[in-house]
What we know:
By secondary structure, the chain is of the alpha+beta class.
Amino acid sequence: MSTAWKPSVTVAAIIERAGRYLLVEEQTRLGLKLNNPAGHLEPGETPAQGCAREALEECAHDFQPTAVVGIYLARSRKNSTGEDQTYLRMAFAGELGRHHPDRALDDGIERVLWMTLDEVRASAARHRSPLVLRCIEDHAAGVRHPLSLIYSDPGVLAPLTSGTGR
Length: 166
């Protein structure tokens, strides 16, 4: 029997201010890499809620998603094990809120950077995935979809009780 294919679901905040994009520099097995504030969707949250949480954890800013930039699929081989892995990323544009300078950043996040689009393009070899630049390019091109593009059943937020399985 083969193992079921289970892509990892991630959410990313595409944050632009005054012509610069917010990225995080994070420690990986391959050294320091650049990424959008992003991470795995967690149980009990909608994709927009997960995106706001990740932005707070990774860059110490409140973030309110207002639009979907895109839904992306990427595949790679995990360097440590050679395992085939697929990521489904939902990227959001939104409003950057209050900065929390005393808040510790997530483990592995070294610093937050503000980069121009040209700087982001020039640093592509340092990106954690090809989706970093693709999401920013789409944002810069004005791609925006309503948040309603991604429907979350109310049961996502409710405690799981017996008899709710399918």
